[in-house]
Design brief:
Layout: H1 2-15, E1 17-22, E2 28-33, H2 38-52, E3 59-64, E4 69-77, E5 92-101, E6 104-111, E7 115-120, E8 123-126, H3 129-149
Antiparallel strand pairs: 1-7, 2-6, 3-4, 4-5, 5-6, 7-8
Amino acid sequence: MKKTIIILLLVTFSSCYSAKVVTTPKPIHRILKTKFKKSKNYIKANEWMVESFISSKSVIQFSDKEEGIIKGKYLMYQGIQGTKYIPSSKPYYGIITIRVKDNSVKIEITPLGEFKVMKYMGSNYGFTTEQFIIKGNSLVNDFNMYLKNNEDTW
């Protein structure tokens, strides 16, 4: 009788939780036209990254002013601390690469690692490919607005 109850409980709880790895999306990239020279575009891109990387886990990892490249690892999803009611999920990072030249800037957001989505009690937990695309497009739009609206006034 005890074995039957234990098996029944195991089947019940294991059917409430599942994890799956989903396909990684393609990088998000856009070329933005500006009215600035390469050096000004580089400075504006660097400033935007510093202002956007509000978490200490987001860092600029490489920059080369002569080549006009800035690369950074960006925390796109904080993750969830698990409890007895919800499973934990790990943070998710993306690589932001900005390349500048006269009158244009290219921004690319590349997924870093695989996407694991957990289904628990009918709800999805984790960072999905759809969330990556939404967050990536939001970052690109924010960068575009920064380039257009951030005029030096002094």
